[in-house]
């Protein structure tokens, strides 16, 4: 019978423990066997928490996994929850015991709150990243970005608004579908956009815009669905939305309106958790994330703009997109400090 | 059979034991969720008080108002439609209509909303005639009217089927008698049909009310703005966006309290009928509708069919534009279809078992009650268990996630969560479908069973099963339809293990693929129809 020296000292009746040991031993050997059968898991595993559209079959997930696994001799395990907000909640709830090595898919409106959890560690990656406004952070690395924009149907709307001011003051018969800032990222984006342009006058702007709002949907999908169904000639979406219609549907019918005041920016980021700090693959993945192997997948799967270098040029459709003259963005801390007050202010005007 | 002997027997009645087990299971599911959130809430309790501001009272008022109106507009017409259907058992396409009536429940809210908008929206088929009628451009149905139209679309068919289920408990002897006495439509409604409907109505109205009070996507999308919003939205926001369990728990309790008030009022309006204890001897239906009545009945059925079928046809039309061949060939679609079928079948089976246990226990408790008030246990097996409907699935999901996150692999738990939560949410529907038949059968067989000493499994198999097959099939069909829809229980768990058809539909919609989503909606509707037909067939075949 096998016994470890330490155990023999502490056990007064070693024979009683024998069955337990046999079980443990056979379990260990079973595990060893399993490890031999599935070598990948023995060489290393990287767990990445992300949002669902990232890992869906048409999202970047499958390509990214293949490209990274090709030269890391490891397994990438994606765990996907509903969206960026659910992602942060999940990590918060799991705390230091989280299985995530990397959390990928927070946006810059959530980073302040994420940092405050103390669950993320500084990184060494991101030197090759370029996003508008030179957004930089010691904990989170951008992997893509996009601008919010009013997307319109060229067949229904001959004179699209050329500025946020024109949107606010335009013909109330020409409707726009927007999202609720309480439940949706683009919804919060529009709120911040209006705030960054109108400042203290934001409530007055919303009071005018309200007549033009067809409805306020819980998420992006519902609003975009109403838009493509023809219910509203305008929808709040991204400057990159027309690229999808050009590339996948070969139509230039849907276009983004370029606004004089500039467009509000959304940056999607990833960070290494305290769990991931112990996994050498985590830093490796972060470096990979800003390299062409990852970035090539971003434009036509996530329909966002790549934050790092790509190997191949972007589809020509992306050259036709609106390029904002000015980038608008609040710092993560400003958003964290004011979000509730600003949403309440919005609610006060919109629920009258 | 009222007396001490009956009372003594009741303590060993296995039906009560089954009910207690079912209640315990439901209690654990809901209680566990509240415990999980409660632990988190205690750490940061301020959120609960902060939730009660003037905005909250505004939305609470709107929540109640729209739910009451929706219930009224769904249930009252349903009485006429159900009665018409019951008086015309040979109406052409009747069974197809009844099956179609289960489909709305399976459709994700956004699919139904888009279907309704294809008719009544700004760009809908009726927009031009409506614009011509009203002068100027048709503004669409955004606002309270849109919410009501959508809620009636969901709930009129549901209420119709459940009322019809109650009408089918009327013994054929009564119809024979009515026919012999030459009763007209009005007197047979007053004397025969109304008592049966009245007994079931509060429960059905309560069910519809609960569905409307917890409405979320419909209210936000068709409501036109945050003035039209429900408490459910505030609960969702508290959990998903702010992760403030204290506020979520406080709002959920408020929602339960508001519902309880309305449901209690509804119960007062109801009546306890004594039922008919005689075994039916008449074999066929004796309803003979006169020409005038027939016209009205046919009109009621056709209007309801047009109202419910219209948005469904629109959904089919946009679904046919999708590349259905490619979709059906995709591995992910096939996998999701299979996952949906398996999960829905499991949930529906569980829901039917829970419902039957509760219905049997309620009946046994009511039978053994000596006099006076119902006991707490009886109340719980009756209306009480139905309150699970106003506990938002996201609260259950998040609560359990918090509770088990440190001890269990949450991934393995995701499918179990989906099955159990769907089953418990579908249980109240199943109860409404099964209860009238069971109570009627019990009224007839209770003494016989007591005399012959038949109880437990033998009684279920020999006495109850033959009469319960058809209502159980209805219950099963509804439960399955409801379980096919996506409830968003597992937002935090991670959905990789449970990619169902509605999940896939919403995912495609979320990545610009609206055509795919429309195609999947069509497939989901067809799947629901197929499963409903299967359930109906099982209910009928075995009843020979």
Q: Write the element-wise H/E pattern of chain A from the N-terminal end onward.
A: HHHEHHEHEHEEHEHHEHEHEEHHHEEH
Tell me the number of helical segments of chain A per DSSP (H or I, 4 or more residues long): 16
Shape of chain A: globular
* Shape category of chain B: globular
Proportion in β-strands of chain A: 15-25%
How large is the radius of gyration of chain A? Answer: 25 Å
Rg of chain B to the nearest angstrom? 23 Å
Runs of chain B in which pLDDT lies below 50 for 5 or more consecutive residues are 1-10
Which CATH top level class of the largest domain in chain B fits?
Mainly Alpha
| CATH architectural type of the largest domain in chain B | Orthogonal Bundle
Count of DSSP-assigned helices of chain B: 23
**Largest interface (CB < 8 Å):** A-B, 55 and 52 residues
Distance between the termini of chain B: 31 Å
Terminus-to-terminus distance of chain A: 79 Å
**Structural class of the helix and strand makeup of chain B?**
mainly alpha
Based on DSSP secondary structure assignment, what is the total number of beta strands of chain B? 0
| Count of spatially separate domains of chain B | 2
Largest sheet of chain A: 12 strands, mixed
Strand content of chain B: under 5%
| Main β-sheet description of chain B | none
- Give me the oligomer status: heterodimer
How does this structure look, described?
The complex is a heterodimer of chains A (352) and B (544). Chain A is built from 16 helices and 12 strands. Chain A is of the alpha/beta class. In chain A, strands 1, 2, 3, 4, 5, 6, 7, 8, 9, 10, 11 and 12 form a 12-stranded mixed β-sheet that branches. Chain B has 2 domains: 1-43 and 325-544, MetI-like (MetI-like fold), CATH 1.10.3720; 61-321, MetI-like fold (Orthogonal Bundle). Helices cover 76% and strands 0% of the residues of chain B. Chain B has helices at 4-10, 14-43, 46-50, 54-87, 94-100, 103-106, 109-120, 127-134, 144-167, 172-180, 185-213, 217-223, 231-241, 245-269, 291-320, 324-329, 331-368, 376-382, 393-404, 410-452, 456-484, 501-509, 514-541. In chain B, helix 1 (4-10) packs antiparallel against helix 17 (331-368) and helix 2 crosses helix 19 (393-404). The longest helix of chain B has 43 residues, at 410-452. Chain B is globular. Residues 1-10 of chain B have low confidence and may be disordered. The interface between A and B is large, with 55 and 52 residues. Chain B: It holds the Pfam family BPD_transp_1.
